[in-house]
Amino acid sequence: AAKEAGRGTWRRFKTSMQTQVESRFELEGELRKGLESQQLRLYLQPKTNRDGLVYGTESLVRWEHPEKGLIPPDRFIPLAEDTGMIIPLGEWVLKETLLLMKEHPHLTFAVNISPRQFRNCNFVEQVQQLLNETGADPKRLTLEVTEGLLITDFNQSSKRMLELQKLGISFSIDDFGTGYSSLSYLKKLPINELKIDRSFVDGLPDDSSDALLVETMMAVAKHLELLVVAEGVETQEQQAYLYSVGCNLHQGYFYGKPEPAEQLLARLKKT
Ligand code: C2E
Ligand code: MG
Ligand code: MG
Ligand code: MG
């Protein structure tokens, strides 16, 4: 009986492994098709200032799968990154965003750029070309990158950032505080903004170590003259605490979840 149970376990194990491999393979093919047949959706989340006004948005992609429904980016961005599909996918997000900019001259627009996309040797050219094609104003465009990207291959990254900065583009460090990196890179790179990771905002105002970390990040940012955006603001208590330490730019469900781009922009135009 033990032997049979053992065999059964092995079979189950093998089956689940195969399923994982197959579903990943399947998902890859489907994502390729999805990209071609316009299944990607551009969602935007508002960024709000101290006056409670929406001053900008962040582009967050979703995949509207014909059978599986709306798939969040965490389930396909890593796959796209592994397979290289992030290059056309990222180009799509950037272009869709740039196309919206002309119609909304009072808003800033932020786009997430993953490491492989940023490191692609054609990236600067691609951005330049999309700016030309769309006539979008680069001064209202921010690229969100992560700390990890900047530390690995520092020289190459900083060179590329400077080229993009010359075009008028700004840079933001996404998920700031989660990268275990030294802070010295902040003064060596053309960075305009830090985004405090949601994990530090979660425990505010009661968690004293989160509070201390947020205050420390504010001090660093003040010293280096960087803007700070708090991610994942969900409650009025978090809002009040952040205001009290001088963090006035917020993003989070308290203000608005990501929603289809046209929907958010139409509402903003009316108010
Ligand atoms: P991110 O850039 O750090 O985006 C913030 C994530 O936190 C978003 O998840 C957003 O919906 C979520 N969020 C915002 N406010 C709150 C809140 O108050 N509470 C909670 N619980 N969550 C909140 P989303 O849209 O699922 O995106 C996840 C990640 O996928 C993004 O993290 C980003 O790293 C990546 N991503 C999304 N779109 C793109 C894209 O177009 N290109 C690339 N390369 N990555 C993308
Ligand atoms: Mg982001
Ligand atoms: Mg983030
Ligand atoms: Mg994130």
Automatic annotation (TrEMBL):
It comes from the Bacteria. Residues 24-271 form the EAL domain. This is PAS domain S-box-containing protein/diguanylate cyclase (GGDEF) domain-containing protein. The lineage of its organism: Bacteria, Pseudomonadati, Pseudomonadota, Gammaproteobacteria, Oceanospirillales. The chain holds residues 499 to 769 of 769 of the full protein.
